[in-house]
Amino acid sequence: xxxxxxxxxxxxxxxxxxxxxxxxxxxxxxxxxxxxxxxxxxxxxxxxxxxxxxxxxxxxxxxxxxxxxxxxxxxxxxxxxxxxxxxxxxxxxxxxxxxxxxxxxxxxxxxxxxxxxxxxxxxxxxxxxxxxxxxxxxxxxxxxxxxxxxxxxxxxxxxxxxxxxxxxxxxxxxxxxxxxxxxxxxxxxxxxxxxxxxxxxxxxxxxxxxxxxxxxxxxxxxxxxxxxxxxxxxxxxxxxxxxxxxxxxxxxxxxxxxxxxxxxxxxxxxxxxxxxxxxxxxxxxxxxxxxxxxxxxxxxxxxxxxxxxxxxxxxxxxxxxxxxxxxxxxxxxxxxxxxxxxxxxxxxxxxxxxxxxxxxxxxxxxxxxx
Length: 370
Ligand code: DAH
Known about the structure:
By secondary structure, the protein is an alpha+beta fold. Helices cover 39% and strands 22% of the residues. α1 (4-16) packs parallel to α4 (49-88), α2 runs antiparallel to α4 and α5 (107-121) packs across α11 (325-333).
């Protein structure tokens, strides 16, 4: 018996199979338990040895040819399927990124990153403290005893319950308590800035119940007001990216510093395109067309505060300063209403926010916009 016709037909049908499912159907039809070629193999048993010697190799050759054709067709169908998938799923990496809605970095975050970058260059580390504070860290240790009027001036948000040590708990009203925590935790010398949220019960165009400050603290030996002035000048020149920033130190009072100084920065009155005059930082406030703007509080750390931090004030001295981060952002980037900082309006964020790729570096300019 010649199996040439069977073979031709099988190979033709295999070659015509259009998908893997159809091909599997053919495999079962030919080679499955009940398959036609399997059936032929079973006939060998009933043959005489002579018949079998002729028919055996033919049937085996048929099975081999069909098996091989099935395998080849399967490989061809699989690679065609892969080609089709690759063709339909191309990614052109040279295309620009899609115009999907993208978030921005909030100016407060950006400014805090700028501050960290500027102060890191002067050897300052970034320290943090809790926003839920006790009144000892927030007030007492900073030389603001219970009866002190400064406590009332801070418009403090208190919690109804005291902590385990009987201390009143509150939302910190300033970042100054981080001074105490840093001294107690790390001893001296210290060079830190402590940026973060602070809270006061106050609300208008320039005050929000939550706002941001950055505290600075240097504790070392032989520290003077000169170090303070140089540090603030270097910081403000780098931050505002102007060499002509001029500072004026005015005697002031803070319980935690002695002496205390209020730092003013000189500005020029410049009339803008809308006819309104704007304040542009730079130059001496005493020059014609100029003025002084109060910017931050600072001073030499009070001996009592150094002692509260667990250090010997005869051995260690230092300076501290505190400045509003939101205020710094407004002065540099031109917003005029503080409340909008915390509205979460995406139009405001799209306008005033920063690209995530715009990482502040001293070499590229800490405030460079992409
Ligand atoms: N803690 C002060 C405030 O919130 C700001 C301040 C003033 C911080 C003078 C200081 C400082 O470290 O020396 O208003």
